[in-house]
Amino acid sequence: NEEEFLKVCEKRKTENGGKLKAVDINKKELEIEVKELKSLSQVIEGLKEKFPGLVHWRVPVCNSAAPLAADFDNICKTLVGTAINTPVIVNDQVGLSRATTGCVIACLFKEFQISASFEGLVETVPGVNASLLKTDRYVMNPEKDTLNRGEFEVVKELISKLKDGAGAKNNADKIIDLNGTPKTGGTGIKQLRENIAESKLSYEIMDDAAQAFLKTKIMDNIQKYFYLIAFTAYIRESAAAAREVVEADQKAAVALPASGKCSIPAAQLKLGKSFVTFLSENAGLDDLIDTGKGNLQWERDIPPAALANLEGLAAKDFKGNLGKIIHDIYQTAHVMFGDMPQGDHKKRAKYRFASKTIMRILPAAMKKEIEGLIEAKKMTMDLYEILGKCTWVEIK
């Protein structure tokens, strides 16, 4: 609430002798002398004096999860009626995830305008291969792994349910990459799809508390990616419909003599239905993502033969074989995490795996005792702490 936020700032300024304490994007603490306080809306209203055509629309959205279906519609309603070359400025508090999401939505709407307005016109130009302009033919780098390609199980199910779901995903991926980092051919600073894979990589090296937070963030980002693909399918369907809904008395004004196809000015294009309606017509998508966004392999599976070997050593003589057990755990980890680049991330992932695996194969009595100490927060599930407890000898 901008008005309430302005009141809070005014109160803090008064209590601090006309100054406000703030933290910049680099987390540097500042104390600023305040000469005048304005809300964002008041600043925008002032800009309209210089730019009378400026339209401001605020859409509160979650940082990680997808905007609501109504939020997609609100952005589209703001853009309907604009010319094809109308600049769109997207801003959020930091300029990362939410701003990039807004940019992707705006670009997809621009694609709707281009597709509906100019497809007929482009086809009249001699020598132009119109298929080259189709973003649904986008081919991602095949060397990327499945997570970086966005091939999540729930996304695969979505593609199978949507009309030309594969084309919608290709189209969405192209726009996401263009709005992403330079390494994916973009000009932005956030890669909405590959950011999921990066977070999943970090997940493997985090402690339990950090994992709980990161797991929620990963699932939220999968949900966002899911709805961006669904929105792309909606936009593609809307573009095809918009080309066919020209009234008979207006068709002569926009029809091209050579082909008879219509080239409707972008500012005159209308969306036949809302994204909310599209989702209701494709019933089950909301339930699909709610139940499927967590369908990831959160922990790497230890090979059965390696686990059987470790369990055998522990059962035969845990303390006597402890050196061999530790050696074999790390040898297994070396193979399991072979895909990760050398460095601290890989070391932490292997150490965490070793901590969990040693807990898994502890003799029953020892395991029960250590689990009790961990639950009572007298120790943590750390390899060295566990080994220290297992090998500690009390003097009698």
Could you give a quick summary of the protein structure above?
This protein has 396 residues and is an all-alpha fold.
Mean pLDDT reading: 86
Strand order of the largest sheet: 1-2
- The SSE string, one letter per element, is HEEHHHHHHHHHHHHHHH
Stretches where pLDDT is under 50 for at least 5 consecutive residues are none
Radius of gyration: 28 Å
Instruction: Please give the count of helices.
Output: 16
Q: In percent, how much strand structure appears in the residues?
A: under 5%
What's the total count of β strands? 2
Largest sheet properties: 2 strands, antiparallel
Structural class, by secondary structure, is mainly alpha
Shape call: globular
Helix content: 55-70%
What's the end-to-end separation, in Å?
A: 67 Å
Describe the structure in your own words.
- With 396 residues, this protein is mostly helical.
- It is built from 16 helices and 2 strands.
- The chain has helices spanning 2-15, 40-50, 69-79, 97-122, 153-161, 165-178, 194-203, 208-242, 248-254, 275-281, 285-292, 304-317, 322-336, 344-361, 364-375, 383-391, and strands spanning 19-23, 29-33.
- Strands 1-2 form a two-stranded antiparallel ribbon.
- Strand 1 and strand 2 form a beta hairpin.
- Helix 5 packs across helix 6, helix 5 packs antiparallel against helix 11 and helix 13 crosses helix 14.
- It starts with a helix and ends in a 5-residue tail after the last helix.
- The mean pLDDT is 86.
